[in-house]
Structure formats: structure tokens, C-alpha cells
Amino acid sequence: MEARNNPTHHRAGTQQRATVVGAGIAGLAAALRLHQQGWDVVMIERAPARRSSGYLLNLHGPGYAAAERLGLLPALTPRDIGFFTSVLVHADGREKFRIPAAVAESAVGNRALSLFRGDLESALYDAVADLADIRFGTTVQTIDQTAEEVVVTLSDGTRLHSDLLVGADGVHSRVRELVFGAESEHFVDLGHMVGAFPLATVPEHVPEGAGTTFIGPGRTAAVMNFGPERSSAFFTYRCPDPTAELALGAAPALDRAFGDLGGGVADALRQLAADPATAYFDSVGQIVTDRWSQGRVVLLGDAAWCVTVFAGYGAALALDGADRLGTALAAHGDDIPTALATWETALRPEAHKRQALARKGIGRFAPSTRTQVWAGELMLRAIQLPGLRGLARRSIQRANN
């Protein structure tokens, strides 16, 4: 593992300063990585307090390796859900067939973690909280930069002078808007909505330690039961008018799209109706931009590339991108523009690859026809055969190389 306990100070002993906008996975990982090499970090987060909910994610391949290099594994391993049984269900909640945990374990291997997004954010926050100045309920108003520094004016009137500004503030990035242009110039709408939220009580129609999934034409609903305060629901569906859905709101929109379903889905929707503020609900789109950096400003994570939930790799790429960013900055010292350009050149092919895989993967989450639903189920049944498990494992390994 790379040694990071000997920070290099620049400019005749002056500590380098970074402002990181966004306290999600990418921003927290960047703050941690920069601190590990001696940077003074200020974090800006528009939310009034940290958020800890979210859907299930997987860390394997480069994402797992980045978590290891960042020193996160001791905190993440106890939160690992591990491999679990997946149950495909009919619309009324009756079981169709099961995919045993051993199938996923055989395909992915043992250098992998299954985590709720909130657990990964919590581990990152705990690692960073005492190391960085984190300012909640604050937004960026203006950004100005010279060859020597970047100056950020905040909503409270504060002006921050930094050597580097990291825009890790998500798909709807304020940093990207101010430096690279309006969101409409970079956002590619994929015509789907996604909703995810924690469940206050265990869904009674989902087996303990398992997840149930309904897949139908144009939609998928998954409900996870890992016990109290560890259960959650995830929904995605095809949508021709995301703006109208967002105006409707998470609970009414998801009820309209999935209210005909029974079992665990009905359990989850009832809980959402009782507490709609717990949901993450947004349109699904990718960010496509010619550059991720300009001068001393760099975009990271969803603000730069947004591979979407259809890729299943957003958190892993955020960790890997943050770790690689720190490596590039360490290698180039005070020449920050060159460091950022080098980092982008190395990482951009991986982001493009994941975006392409996500676009191909839409059919798995929202099949166009019943025939496609049937074909997907046939593949899931077949992958349980011993001879095909090795094929699945090799396919995953190729995707992570």
C-alpha cells in the first residue's frame, strides 16, 4: 500500500489548501485523500446536515482497491451485508425463483463489499470529520481564479482562497454550472426515474436476509430485508416526462408507477406514504462534458461523469477517481493544471466505459417488452448452472480490468 503519512509541503513550507464542494462519497473521499498527503481542506455542503440513507451498492475491483488504499476497510467490513439470496417475484409478491448467495459470491470473489450507500458515506464522514472544516447549509455563489489561486464566495459571504477547488456536488453541480456552463449543456436524459429509501420497519413479505425483485416491462422494484434499520427499497421505471414526475413527488409518483404490485413492494410504498421525506427521487441521466478541469477547478464523481445506477459502479468510480486524483496531485506538486490533466487522461476511458455499460444495462432494469423480461429471467436461471458460473465470473473480471 502507498505510504501517505509524510505529507509534502509546498511553496517554502506553505500548506496547500483545497475547497471541496459536496459531502457525498466523491467529496468525502477527495477530502480524505488530500488530507492524507498534507492538504488543508474545507468542505462545503448545501444540505443542512449529513444524509445517511440510500440504496445498496457493491464495491469490487478498483473500487474495493481504492477503499483499501484510503484505509476504509476496517470501518466498512463490519457494515458489509455480504452476499445474499435474491428472490424474483410475480406482481402479487409470489416467488418465481431464487438466486442463492453462492452464485454471486462465485462470480465476484472475496475482494468485495455490499453496502448501503449511507454506510459508506458514514465511514467516510467519520474518517474526515476531525480532519476537515465541514460547513453544512452553505452554497457556492461565485468562483474566480487566477494562475495562483481560486477564490470561492459562499452564501454566508465568506471568501475562501484555495490552491484547488474540487466540484463533487453531484449531477446538479453548482461548480460545473459556474465554471463549465449550464446543466442543459452536459446532462443526457436517459428517460427513467429512480427512487430509493430506507424502511423504518422490516417488510413482512420479504424473507429475512434476502431481497425480492419484481421486473416487468419498463420497471423494476426491489425490497431488501436485512433487519431493523438495515432494510430498504429501490425503484426505477421508464418515464417520458421526468419534470412532471419530479413535480408530482416521490410518494405519489412511485405509487402511480408501482401501486398495482403486492408483497414487499406494497409494504414499502405504505411506509413511503407515511414518511415521504426519506426518499431519494430523481431522473436518471449521465453527465457528458469535454473537460473535467479548468485551471485549478476540477469536477469529480457524478458532477463529472455520472455513470448512473444502471452501471452499478458509481460509488466505486468515485472512490477510485478521488484516490487517483490525490496520486496525480502528489506527483506534480505545485503544477496543479498538469496534475488535473494527467488524472483526467488516465481516468476518462474508464468513465466512458462505465457510461456505455450503463446505457446497455437499461434493458436489465426496465425491459421494453415481456419477451425481454422472459429472456432476462432465463439468463438468471441459467447462470445458476455450475458451468456458467465461471463464465459470469470471467465476464465481471473483464469489466473490472
What can you see in these coordinates?
The protein is built from 13 helices and 18 strands. The protein is α/β, with parallel strands linked by helices and 401 residues long. It has a seven-stranded mixed beta sheet, sandwiched between helices. A hairpin with a 2-residue loop joins strand 13 (210-216) and strand 14 (219-225). Helix 10 packs antiparallel against helix 11 (336-365). The longest helix is centred in the C-terminal third of the chain and has 30 residues, at 336-365.
How do you describe this structure in short?
Helix content is 39%, strand content 25%. With 401 residues, it is of the alpha/beta class.
Considering the chains and any ligands shown, give keywords for the structure.
13 helices; alpha/beta; 401 residues
